[in-house]
TrEMBL record:
<dbReference type="GO" id="GO:0005975">
    <property type="term" value="P:carbohydrate metabolic process"/>
</dbReference>
<dbReference type="InterPro" id="IPR033132">
    <property type="entry name" value="GH_1_N_CS"/>
</dbReference>
<keyword id="KW-0378">Hydrolase</keyword>
<dbReference type="Pfam" id="PF00232">
    <property type="entry name" value="Glyco_hydro_1"/>
</dbReference>
<comment type="similarity">
    <text>Belongs to the glycosyl hydrolase 1 family.</text>
</comment>
<feature type="signal peptide">
    <location>
        <begin position="1"/>
        <end position="23"/>
    </location>
</feature>
<keyword id="KW-0732">Signal</keyword>
<dbReference type="InterPro" id="IPR017853">
    <property type="entry name" value="GH"/>
</dbReference>
<protein>
    <submittedName>
        <fullName>Beta-glucosidase 11 isoform X1</fullName>
    </submittedName>
</protein>
<dbReference type="GO" id="GO:0004553">
    <property type="term" value="F:hydrolase activity, hydrolyzing O-glycosyl compounds"/>
</dbReference>
<dbReference type="InterPro" id="IPR001360">
    <property type="entry name" value="Glyco_hydro_1"/>
</dbReference>
Amino acid sequence: MKRSLSLLVLIPVLLNLTVAVLSADTYSRYDFPPGFIFGSATSAYQVEGAASEDGRTPSIWDTFTHAGYANGATGDIAADHYHKDKEDVKLMAEMGLDAYRFSISWSRLIPNGRGPVNPKGLEFYNNLIDELISHGTLPHVTLNNYDLPQALEDEHGGWIDRRIVKDFTAYADVCFREFGDRVSYWTTVNEPNVFAIGGSDQGISPPKHCSPPFGTNCTRGNSCSEPYIAVHNILLAHASAARLYRIKYQGKQQGFIGLSIFAFGAVPSTNSTEDVMATQRMVDFYIGWIANPLVFGDYPDAMKKFVGSRMPSFTNHESELVRGSFDFLGVIHYSTFNVQDSPGSLDLKQRDFDII
């Protein structure tokens, strides 16, 4: 029997651990400012299950896990949230969650990636949103969390093809139109930096693009260029969707749109100039890669210098579209690293957090 991926079942345990830690330090939620939102988050493939039910088609995550790259685990059943959504929402309310951020399975809502909307998929997300609201839990929606429809990956290569910008914008339009009367917070793409590194550089996550020496066992890809192309197209797709939302929906729906970045802390190992500069390069390559275009309209100078001609460039028009295309930036933070300058890191045999 295949193991299933599950995240939602961990939430009560994590919450209990959090309560224990807060209690030990004599903190409670009442020590936070009024209006502070306590919530939790999942991604569609990790919790929904029902992978081949009611018109859903495979995503790149399905392809990845069924090829055996997740040690036999799949999301075919996961936490069975598709069938247990009411039960799960009730548990969230009992836990005291103010908000719940979930992602929409693009291939459940629009099975071919573009074109007709799947009525069953639409029904599921409408019911989930209504159920959350009825229990006083604010729905936050992520449009894409690693699980691009396999149909688009097969057709044109997914995020490494510029056509994905139009596809994503049309998909976002459906979501804004159908759910925006009840959803006020939209995250377009989750962790584009880690998605590109894992999926198009190291090949350790879908769509498993890579090339030696950076990744192994990949049948296609170019680790030297594709991560930068993927992020470039994600930023353009985000900006396009944000522009659509602001022009067509935001005035009436009064919501907010943004993007989430995987952001670790970076601390120099010593006070040496070399380690301080290396730390800044790490921040540029992992965080500035996403944040700088959104704030300033272009990539960090360090990236452009070291990546060179492999780094895509924005036209003046694209730069204007991307810059300021957010109402909020989500920060996903798990840990902090000490950074040490490593002059030999340009030897392509090393790939770790201290390589820059």
